Amino acid sequence: MDKHTEHQSLNHKSAKEKDQILNRLKRIEGQVRGIQNMVDNERYCVDILVQISAVQAAMQKVAFHLLEDHAHHCVAGAIESGNGEQAIAELLDVVKKIAKS
Asked: Smallest Cα–Cα separation from 31: which of 47, 17, 19?
């Protein structure tokens, strides 16, 4: 069983917020496909690297948005219900992983 199943999922988000995240991810997916085409068409390496950098920045933006939301809803809720230690430890672990990327 996944240790994260006891935590809240994105179900606290409004439909609009969920759609915004999905739309961002779809745009990123399109950017990645564009990079694949650039490689396939043997485009200039620097142009490809610039696009890869743009995708990484877009993914970081999504990650930080989700991280902020997680802290405000999931972690705060866990603290209020007396389960804060585990939620804070999990939050710190994910911050470390995001910081490495």
From this structure: 47
